[in-house]
Each structure stands twice: as C-alpha cells, then as structure tokens.
Amino acid sequence: MTDYNTDTMHPDVAASREAEPSLGDSFERLVGSAKELAEAEIALAKLRGGVVAGAAKWIGILAVAAFVIAFGMIVTLMVGAVMALAPLCGLGLAVLAVTGIALVVILLCALGIKGQVGRIMGAFR
User: Fold this and answer.
1) What's phi and psi for 99, nearest 5 deg?
2) Contact 98, 85 (CB under 8 A)
3) Sign of the alpha-carbon dihedral angle for 88, 93, 95, 97
4) What are phi and psi for residue 105, nearest 5 degrees?
5) CB neighbours of 86 closer than 8 A, spacing ≥ 6?
6) 3-state DSSP call for residue 22?
7) How far is CA 17 from its chain centroid?
8) Among 57, 55, 51, 106, which residue's Cα sits nearest to residue 78?
9) Which of 8, 43, 105, 108 lies in the 20 to 30 Å Cα band around 119?
10) CA–CA separation, 59 and 65 (whole Å)
11) In whole angstroms, how large is the CA radius of gyration of the chain?
12) Cβ-contact 14, 6 below 8 angstroms
C-alpha cells in the first residue's frame, strides 16, 4: 500500500486518509462477516431440520392412527353388511357376497395402482 505524507496534505485529506481502513482490515472484516453468515446459515438449517423432524414424527403418528381407525371402520362396515344380508339370503351367502364385493374393490384398486406405476416407469424411459 502507498504511504502518504500527511505533513504536506490538506488537514481534511490527511484525516480522511488516516480514517480509511487498510485493505487488510477490510479483508479481515469480510472474512469475519462470511464466517458469521456461514454460522447463521448452519444454525438456520439445524432449526429447520428440527422443525421438519418434529413435523414428520407427528405426521407418522397421525397417519398410523388414521389407518388403524379406517381399518376398524371397514371391518365394522363389512360385519354390518353381512348382518344386514343374512336374513335375506342366509349367513353363508351373505359372507360370500360381502367378500366378493370386497375382492372386486381390491382388484380395481390394484389395477389403478398398476396404471400409475406404468405411468411412472414411462416417465423414466
């Protein structure tokens, strides 16, 4: 860096030259700011990760609870359908009818799943 002879300069110019930080000082401030920014970004990422992990835990818990309740509801509905059909066609035929209808619904769901898997596979060809 150039050394200035402040004795021959106007007092205002000399004062401004002395007040200017050197290039090394500016670089040190820049590096310090970059470190602070990196540390703040890391802290933010950790905070976001904690929020996502907590939300994912509750999503899993609530999804399992909903699945268990839905399964119980379907079983209750099927038992109720058998009980409603039993006086009309007998217990054995009522069980077969409800089971057959359930299998048809399962088959339709499986065909829908197969179509969606084929769509996904087609996207990667």
Assistant:
1) -65, -40
2) yes
3) negative
4) -65, -40
5) 94
6) coil
7) 54
8) 106
9) 105
10) 10
11) 37
12) yes
Q: Which residue has the tokens 């197969």?
A: 114
Residue type for position 94: A
**What does the buried/exposed string (b/e) look like for 27-38 if buried means 16 or more CB atoms within 10 Å of the residue's CB?**
eeeeeeeeeeee
Task: Indicate the pTM of the whole model.
Answer: 0.55
Closest among 21, 22, 4 to 13, alpha carbons compared: 4
Reading the chain (125 residues) residue by residue, the pLDDT tens digits are 555 555 565 666 656 666 677 778 888 888 888 899 999 999 999 999 999 999 999 999 999 999 999 999 999 999 999 999 999 999 999 999 999 999 999 999 999 999 999 999 998 88
Which residue in this structure is represented by tokens 């209750």?
76
One-letter amino acid of 70: A
Token pair 């700011």 is at which residue?
33
- Residues for the chain: how many in total? 125
CB atoms closer than 10 angstroms to residue 4: 13
Query: 């609870």: which residue's tokens?
Result: 65
